[in-house]
Design a protein that fits this description.
Length: about 1200
């Protein structure tokens, strides 16, 4: 081999021979070689050619590069010297600088675009020359700038070969490390092991710095690499040099695992001969036998079994090598395992047998082998699924036929009662459905919820399956638990073809659920106009009502489905039909501000004068809700602006109380009586004064309202505003000459009222406006005496200096009775279509009990409701749970405990039936930085499944149906759980197997979910009749989400690639536990103290954690002074540690503030009030506030405001 130095041909004698000629060019070259920059510049100023060369082709750039004169090189390059000029032997300046090892010159030349892969005579490259001379830094630089170490000389030598020949170990390392492909560069010894390069490996191992057990970033040693590629020679060398044959890389992967996985039988033998542990397990329990069986390497399997590998070794999830072979359809491996007496029916922790796995993957050959070896064809997994269920779900028709041939039970049921026909029907596998029916599968077999295969096919929109089932005798009107038929389901989903098909086969168009909902009601709610039209064409009645008396037109009005409403009206629906509490569709449309529906109803002669049970007309509702467009239209249709409710309140009263200035103006423009009095004498001005609506009062005055109208008890607006401490309204009334001396029938002046309530600012304002502090009430009280009795120190100090009348000090037996002005105690309307109370947590919360208490107030949205905590809290405030509903909750909980498939899959939990739950052979692929180059296997094989992507036939783990589990809608009307079931997941898809403890309220007291931060109170009396559990949208800790039932949802099209090694498919319905969590209640720090009011009580009950408060917060509390009240039980301070209050006279009454729910030290006070006053919101006294939420309530009959 010619050396690179010989190839340069630039020896000094050549130059000396040229020097003898004595011309100027040689002098120039000599000056350049000697590094004489001044002479070089002088020559260049003359006529000397910068590229002139000697007889060997060496020019000034070549010579200065060889000698390392960086300044002259820079000058020559700046003056245009040819950087690619070559000597007679083809060497450029870069060749010469690389041979000389001048890194700075090499760097300068490369920066000036010198070609790094140019080849000289005999194929020498700059990299080759640097490698030959052992210039490792130059080698590294050239490689990093694109130099190719694959370019060989004419006699076949590469840079690596010449480095090895010359014994340049450092250069060898650099070359090998840069030869690693991928984002992660492997160390030199690993590359040598990969290439089976004995010479390089041997040379590298001579350097003690190269550890034979050195690790990559992934933790693999050179022996792992050699095992992967089956490089016996290097492996033998490594072992002889002390390589650890049982070295554990990440996830405890040993070289034997790697060799077994890749079928390197000779390598397996070599490792075993060198004392490799045959049953070593990875972090997830995979043994070498698992790896080889999964990959189908029967020779390795045979070797391992012959050498004593445990045939029933299990992973942490219970998978045996036979499960692995069944998954990969490796019949020869399975046969070997069975020959060595591997149990044919071994089960995983989820009770999956190898036959389950073979059925899932559609591996007919292996399944037949297992069946021939007498495996159980009806083995049940933890959720009750048999291999036949799984094959039906995965559309493995050949496996289905095989299982039926071997006696698999066609009527086997899962925990939720699903037969194979249920599964196939839902999934839409037509051939399997036909095969099952031909084998006498019953199409009418019910699940535990009473659903037949026809129900499930309808829910999954499987029209062809519906047709097959009906043609084979399926009952078209089969009833599920809530008496729903397949037609109800099809109507909700809006599938016209399915609806038509069912009706053509005799489905009852007027079939009713338990709550008397017909398919037409459901179509009206969902806005499915085409479905509604088909139903009406087939004789569906538009006049049928639910248990609460609502027609389809009511429901269409509520949800603003104008097309359905128009269709119903065209078909003769009565626009004035009255439903619950006398509500007409126009009332409902007005409340929900569906102006288009309201206008449609009016165009169809709906009466704007219809009154609800409490006397409200649609205009009352529009006025209260500030629905300007609807109110304007109602007035245009001659709605009476002075219509009165049962208590005598007009729309103007409601608008004034709510502060809707534009609405007030609109009503007054249409001749509404500005001074209209309710039955108790309240005028709109009184209500504006009560709520501090000065803007409304200005409009009322503009239209001629009196300033001092009196109620029946003699209260003027000034009395009212003084009582409630509305300082702005007091100032407005005084500016409009309201009488400060006006008295009520009890002789109270506005000053009396302000003093009684402790409003010191109002007292001062009244005194400035010449209010008499000496005025005496009928019972002989002055403002000062009242303030003294109630302990308002600041008020007493203000009045003491101006009051002349002296009073005798009252005795302890004297009692003072607080007097309050009249308030609007109007009942509101409820359009709740909730039938029969509260059967599931997704049902509506109906209003307070009482024949005349009907509430239409609810959250801003109708359905689906806002399921955030704030949205649910607002909804719950307005809809307290009744005792009847609570009893139904208990019944529902009992059902849920019996049928745990009520639970929805929690996305935080992996599929229970994931065959390899993280069984890995290398670091998780989810770690950042993992790449194909980071693996010993030459690909992204961070887990066992990734190692198999290139040749796997099917997935190993069974993924849940990717049905894009939708959020459950909180439906506040149709309580037969229909919609909730449609938006639930597949009934056999509860693959999450929750592993959390039950926490319920029992006799020992409150048990709160761990980690929620709530205390346990073991001293509580028996609460055995009360259970609290978390529900979707209400569980603030977001620990669990509940399904109302075990219903199904169709699988989406995107099922994932068959190359995914572990497709997480649904096969479980495991029992799950329920979480108890209290709401995330936070006391507002804005007030010095907060008062909770409770009524008298009886019996024993408990307000569950999701019970809303029974009164909405409707007005802003004020705070001043210190209120003392003999009827208060007790007050206490709470901080971040929480606290509890317990009544001394009535021990059953208690208040609990959980830890961390008070953002700052806060005073909580509780006092008794009379039960009769709780039907309506009570006015707040000084220092009182409404709590944001009631945490706990008991016993029966106890009610709280707040």
């Amino acid at each position: 081999m010619s050396t690179a130095e010989e190839a340069t041909g630039d020896s000094n004698p050549d130059l000396r021979e040229s020097d003898e000629e004595g011309d100027g060019n040689n002098s120039f070259l000599r000056a350049a070689r000697d590094g004489n920059l001044e002479d070089v510049l002088e020559y260049l100023k003359g006529s000397t050619d910068i590229n002139t060369s000697n007889s060997n082709g060496l020019n000034a750039l070549h010579l200065t590069s060889k000698e390392g004169h960086i300044k002259i090189v820079e000058e020559l390059l700046s003056r245009g010297a040819n950087i690619e000029a070559a000597t007679k032997k083809g060497n450029t300046a870069l060749h010469i600088a690389s041979l000389a090892g001048h890194l700075n010159i090499v760097s300068l030349l490369v920066e000036n675009k010198a070609k790094v892969n140019v080849q000289a005579q005999f194929g020498f490259t700059p990299l080759y020359m640097a490698a030959q001379e052992g210039h490792s830094e130059v080698v590294k630089y050239l490689l990093s700038n694109g130099a190719s170490q694959g370019l060989a000389t004419q006699d076949g030598f590469t840079p690596l070969a010449v480095a090895l020949q010359q014994g340049n170990e450092r250069v060898v390392s650099v070359l090998l490390e840069h030869d690693s492909k991928g984002k992660v560069k492997l160390p030199a010894l690993h590359i040598a092991a990969k290439k089976d390069d004995m010479r390089s490996a041997n040379l590298l191992l001579q350097n003690e710095q190269n550890d034979v057990n050195g690790e990559t970033k992934s933790g693999f040693t050179p022996l792992h690499i050699a095992a992967h590629y089956g490089n016996i020679n290097v492996a033998t060398l490594l072992i002889s040099k002390g390589a650890d044959v049982n070295f554990r890389a990440k996830n405890n992967i040993t070289p034997l695992h790697v060799a077994s996985r890749w079928g390197k039988d000779k390598m397996v033998t070599l490792l075993l001969d060198n004392k490799a542990v045959i049953d070593e397990k990875t972090r997830d329990g995979l043994s070498p036998l698992h790896c080889s069986a999964r990959s189908g390497h029967e020779m390795v399997v045979d070797t391992l079994l012959e050498r004593g590998a445990p045939k029933s070794s299990t992973t942490k999830n219970g998978l045996t090598p036979l499960h692995m072979a069944a998954q990969g359809d490796h019949m020869d491996c399975a046969r070997l395992l069975l020959y060595h007496k591997a149990p044919v029916d071994d089960v995983t922790v989820d009770y999956l047998t190898p036959l389950h796995v073979a059925g899932h993957c559609g591996n007919v050959k292996t399944a037949k082998l297992l069946l021939d070896r007498k495996c159980n064809p009806n083995a049940r997994a933890l959720n009750g699924f048999t291999p036949l269920h799984i094959a039906c779900k995965k559309n493995r028709i050949k496996v289905v036929e095989l299982l039926l041939k071997y006696g698999a039970s066609i009527q086997a049921t899962t925990e939720s009662g699903l037969t194979p026909l249920h599964v196939a029907s839902f999934m839409g596998h037509m051939n399997i459905v036909i095969s099952l029916i031909q084998n006498n599968a019953s199409p009418d077999h019910p699940t535990v919820r009473g659903e037949t295969s026809l129900h499930l096919a309808a829910r999954a929109n499987q029209t062809d399956i519906i047709r097959i089932l009906l043609r084979n005798g399926a009952t078209v009107d089969a009833r599920a638990r809530e008496q729903q038929t397949p037609l109800h389901i099809a109507a909700r989903l809006g599938n016209v073809d399915n609806v038509t098909l069912l009706l053509q086969h005799g489905a009852n168009a007027d079939a009713v659920t338990k709550d008397l909902y017909t398919p037409l009601h459901i179509a009206a709610k969902e806005g499915n106009e085409e479905v509604a039209s088909v139903l009406l064409d087939h004789g569906a009645s538009h006049g049928l009502t639910t248990k609460k008396g609502f027609t389809p037109l009511h429901i269409a009005a509520k949800y603003g489905n104008i097309k359905v409403a128009s269709l119903l009206l065209q078909k003769g629906a009565n626009p004035d039909v009255q439903g619950k509490n006398g509500l007409t569709p126009l009332h409902v449309a007005t409340h929900y501000n569906h102006s288009n529906v309201a206008f449609l109803l009016l165009d169809h002669k709906a009466s704007p004068h219809c009154t609800a049970k409490n006397g409200y007309t649609p205009l009352h509702i529009a006025a209260k809700k500030n629905q300007m467009d609807i109110a304007t239209t109602l007035l245009e249709f001659n709605a009476d602006p002075n219509a009165e409710s049962k208590n005598g309140f007009s729309p103007l009263h409601l608008a004034a109380q709510e502060g809707h200035t534009d609405m007030v103006s609109l009503l007054l423009e249409h001749k509404s009586n500005v001074g209209a009095k309710a039955h108790n004498g309240l005028t709109p001005m009184h209500l504006a004064a009560q709520e501090d609506k000065v803007n409304v009062a200005e409009v009322l005055v503009k239209y001629g309202s009196e300033i001092d109208p009196q109620t029946k008890a003699g209260y003027t607006p000034l009395h009212t505003s003084c009582h409630f401490g509305q300082i702005n309204m007091v100032r407005f009334l005084l500016e409009h000459e309201a009488s400060v001396s006006a008295t009520t029938k009890l002789g109270y002046t506005p000053l009396h009222q302000a003093a009684q309530q402790g409003h010191v600012q109002v007292v001062n304002l009244l005194l400035k406006n010449k209010a008499s502090p000496n005025a005496v009430s009928n019972n002989g009280q002055t403002a000062l005496s009242i303030a003294q009795r109630l302990g308002y120190i600041s008020v007493v100090d203000t009045l003491a200096g101006v009051t002349e009348v002296t009073e005798t000090i009252p005795t302890a037996e004297d009692k003072y009775k607080v007097v309050s002005p009249e308030t609007m105690q109007e009942t509101l309307l409820s359009d709740s279509e909730d039938e029969g109370g509260y059967r599931s947590v997704n049902s509506s919360f109906v209003g307070s009990k009482g024949e005349d208490t009907i509430s239409l107030e609810r959250g801003e949205s109708s359905s689906p409701l806002d399921t955030s905590y704030e949205g649910m809290k607002e909804f719950q405030f307005r809809h307290p749970v009744t005792d009847d509903q609570r009893r139904r909750i208990k019944s529902e909980i009992s059902t849920a405990m019996r049928y745990p498939s009520y639970l929805q899959r929690d996305p935080d939990y992996e599929s229970e039936m994931q065959y390899f739950r993280g069984d890995t052979l290398s670091p998780s692929s989810r770690e950042k930085g993992t790449s194909r180059g980071d693996s010993v296997f030459g690909a992204d094989y961070s887990t066992l499944e990734r190692m198999d992507q290139s040749n796997s036939q099917s997935d190993v783990h069974i993924r849940s149906v990717d049905a894009s589990t939708s959020e459950l809608d909180f439906t506040d009307d149709f309580d037969d759980s229909m919609k909730k079931r449609e938006s639930a997941t597949l009934p056999f898809s509860e693959d999450f197997y929750l592993r959390k403890s039950v926490r319920a309220y029992g006799k020992e007291g409150v048990k709160i979910y761990p980690g929620s931060g709530y205390k346990s109170y073991p001293d509580k009396p028996s609460l055995s009749n009360a259970v609290s559990y978390s529900v979707e949208g209400i569980d603030l800790n977001d620990q669990f989400k509940f399904l109302p039932d075990d219903s199904v949802e169709r699988r989406k099209a995107s099922q994932g690639s068959s190359q995914d090694f572990m497709e997480r498919e649904v096969m479980t319905q495991s029992f799950a536990t329920y979480s108890q969590s209290a709401p995330d209640t936070r006391l507002s720090p804005g007030a010095p103290k907060k008062d909770m009011k409770c009524s008298s009580y009886s019996g024993s009950s408990f307000n569950t954690s999701f019970d809303p408060d029974n009164v909405a917060i409707e007005r802003t509390p004020t705070y001043s002074g210190k209120l003392k009240w003999k009827s208060f039980l007790i007050s206490f301070m709470v901080d971040a540690r929480g606290g509890a209050l317990r009544g001394r006279r009535h021990s059953g009454v208690r208040i609990i503030i959980p830890p961390r729910k008070a953002s700052m030290p806060t005073r909580v006070t509780c006092r008794l009030i009379t039960k009769e006053k709780l039907n309506h919101p009570l006015p707040l006294n000084e220092g009182e506030a409404l709590a944001s939420r009631i945490l706990e309530m008991g016993p029966v009959g106890t009610k709280f405001l707040g």
